[in-house]
Amino acid sequence: DTGVSQDPRHKITKRGQNVTFRCDPISEHNRLYWYRQTLGQGPEFLTYFQNEAQLEKSRLLSDRFSAERPKGSFSTLEIQRTEQGDSAMYLCASSLVEYGRRLTGELFFGEGSRLTVL
Amino acid sequence: EDQVTQSPEALRLQEGESSSLNCSYTVSGLRGLFWYRQDPGKGPEFLFTLYSAGEEKEKERLKATLTKKESFLHITAPKPEDSATYLCAVQRTGANNLFFGTGTRLTVIP
């Protein structure tokens, strides 16, 4: 399978614990996005990377959230001191965009990592 | 601020009963409008991109159209496997991300 893969698919944690999600994008894609989706809502943009550079962060991304994309390949999203309001599906997506150009095409999403904070 | 409103929130159709889903949008300069399909517990799956008013795209039983204020996703003779949530998203000119609506949950009854 050459699609976007995310790990773990499900994570249950206690409030206050730290969690980390991993995303492996489609290999030739240079753009990587993180979105969050809660029940009955559409995905909400969190952040995106162009290669290894994090170029934009949403105001939804509090200081408890940090994302990295070392070497421009896989990405991790860490949530520190989790709160019950962090319970959601965390979606990763990737795309191929010419250097210096704007996104002009579709995003390819992974199946998501569902977080439940007790 | 960008706004995307999808209607209805939920739609139940009999197999073969054609209908349309609506996506109304407000954005300061539309770069593109996207339709995605999402099955329960899965990530969104890309269907169509529309870039300018008057544009139409088709795929199997689905047809997407675009005006300056809204987009329609027409479903012709739907089958139970078309049951899913259909998401509409817009990309504002100059933006590098998509802004999604809340979706329409479609159920097709055999």
Walk me through this protein's architecture:
The complex is a heterodimer of chains A (118) and B (110). Chain A has strands spanning 5-7, 10-13, 19-24, 31-37, 44-50, 53-57, 65-68, 75-79, 88-95, 108-109, 113-117. With 118 residues, chain A is mainly beta. In chain A, the strands form 2 sheets. In chain A, strands 2, 4, 5, 6, 9, 10 and 11 form a 7-stranded mixed β-sheet that branches. Chain A has a 4-stranded antiparallel β-sheet with strand order 1-3-8-7, with no helix packed on it. Chain A starts with a strand and ends with a strand. The model of chain A has no long low-confidence stretch (mean pLDDT 92). Chain B is mostly beta strands and 110 residues long. Chain B is 0% helix and 59% strand. Chain B has strands at 3-7, 10-14, 19-26, 30-38, 45-50, 56-59, 62-66, 70-75, 84-92, 99-100, 104-109. In chain B, the strands form 2 sheets. In chain B, strands 2, 4, 5, 9, 10 and 11 form a 6-stranded mixed β-sheet that branches. In chain B, strands 1-3-8-7-6 form a 5-stranded antiparallel β-sheet, with no helix packed on it. Chain B is globular and about 45 Å long. Chain A binds chain B through residues 4, 31, 33, 40-45, 48, 55-56, 91, 93, 102-112, 114, and chain B through 4, 31-32, 34, 36, 41-46, 49, 87, 89, 91, 94-103.
